[in-house]
């Protein structure tokens, strides 16, 4: 067996502190392994990220196709912030024009918008599709919500009281493959705050699908309306509902282009 080292081109983006490494591989030649993803995403031995995204060519009606790996190497169906970061990367690379286009994800086709970038930032949004509240417990103020991926939402009085790492890990057993967990403090009908434990990642500074799931839960509980600002630890995201359909909006920031040596056994 021989080792071959190639140069891997990536860009790094973040939305409300939720950060992603993005690789453009239109012909899907690279095919990153779970181990390679873990190394790239490692915050001490690698580049550091909550997830690694590959952008490939068109499929299923999408202008581009997105594959997302969590930082532990596992595949994820979708990430709201990840899609928004991917949209920014695609516009910045000239793969699509700014404005409206579509990205195929593991949860299906998602319509996105990306405004003309201003410096390193761009306002982006994604249609997250129909949000399904699978279970609702009024007494415990909890909900299980599907946003293309599963979420457990818990309404609490104070976010500072949450053992995020310990409780988040313990709750992973409640669903095969794990579950994203949000704890939500409701400020008023138009504003909430949350902390999140993402399956396959752990505590993160923001979660786009988690922000949508949290508003889906608070709406179902009668605590918020259809348009809500969601304060994540890393920044504020905007969530709006039209019936059961949700849209996630906010700025995305480009952090840098990276050229990484990737050694593989041939």
Would you write up a description of this structure?
The chain has 2 domains: 3-126 and 251-265, Diaminopimelate Epimerase, Chain A, domain 1 (Roll); 132-243, Roll (Diaminopimelate Epimerase, Chain A, domain 1), CATH 3.10.310. With 266 residues, the chain is of the alpha+beta class. The chain contains 4 helices and 17 strands. Helices cover 16% and strands 49% of the residues. It has an 8-stranded mixed beta barrel with strand order 1-2-3-4-6-7-8-17. It starts with a strand and ends with a strand.
Question: Summarize this, please?
Answer:
This protein is an alpha+beta fold. The chain is 16% helix and 49% strand.
Any descriptors?
single chain, 266 residues, alpha+beta, Diaminopimelate Epimerase, Chain A, domain 1, 2 domains, 49% strand
| CATH topology group of the largest domain | Diaminopimelate Epimerase, Chain A, domain 1
pLDDT averaged over residues: 96
Number of domains: 2
Shape, per Cα inertia axes: globular
Helix content: 10-25%
Major sheet, described briefly?
8 strands, mixed, barrel
Strand content: over 45%
Broad structural category: alpha+beta
Q: Enumerate the strands of the largest sheet in spatial order, edge to edge or round the barrel.
A: 1-2-3-4-6-7-8-17
What is the top-level CATH class of the largest domain? Alpha Beta
Question: Terminal Cα separation, in Å?
Answer: 6 Å
Our count of helices gives: 4
CATH superfamily of the largest domain: Diaminopimelate Epimerase, Chain A, domain 1
Please provide the ordered H/E string of secondary-structure elements: EEHEEEHEEEEEEHEEEHEEE
For the record, the CATH architecture of the largest domain stands as: Roll
Q: What is the number of beta strands? A: 17
Low-confidence stretches: none
Radius of gyration: 18 Å
């Amino acid at each position: 067996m021989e080792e071959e080292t190639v140069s891997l081109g990536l860009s790094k983006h973040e939305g409300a502190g939720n950060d992603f490494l993005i690789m453009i591989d239109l012909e899907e030649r690279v095919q990153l392994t779970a181990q390679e993803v873990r190394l790239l995403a490692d915050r001490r031995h690698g580049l550091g990220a909550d997830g690694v995204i590959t952008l490939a060519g068109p499929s299923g009606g999408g202008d581009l196709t997105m594959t997302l790996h969590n930082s532990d190497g596992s595949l994820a169906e979708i990430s709201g912030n990840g899609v928004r970061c991917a949209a920014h990367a695609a516009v910045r690379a000239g793969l699509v024009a700014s404005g409206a286009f579509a990205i195929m994800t593991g949860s299906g086709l998602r319509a996105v918008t990306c405004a003309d970038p201003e410096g390193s930032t761009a306002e982006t949004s994604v249609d997250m599709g129909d949000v399904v509240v699978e279970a609702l417990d009024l007494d415990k103020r909890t909900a299980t919500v599907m946003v293309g991926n599963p979420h457990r939402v818990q309404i609490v009085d104070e976010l500072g009281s949450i053992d995020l790492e310990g409780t988040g890990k313990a709750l992973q057993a409640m669903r095969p493959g794990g579950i994203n967990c949000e704890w939500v403090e409701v400020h008023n009908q138009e504003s909430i705050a949350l902390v999140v434990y993402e399956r396959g990642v752990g505590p993160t500074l923001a979660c786009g699908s988690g922000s949508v799931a949290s508003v889906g839960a608070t709406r179902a509980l009668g605590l918020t309306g259809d348009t809500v600002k969601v304060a994540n630890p890393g920044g504020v995201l905007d969530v709006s509902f039209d019936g059961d359909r949700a849209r996630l909006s906010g700025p995305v920031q480009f952090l840098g282009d990276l050229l990484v040596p990737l050694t593989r056994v041939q």
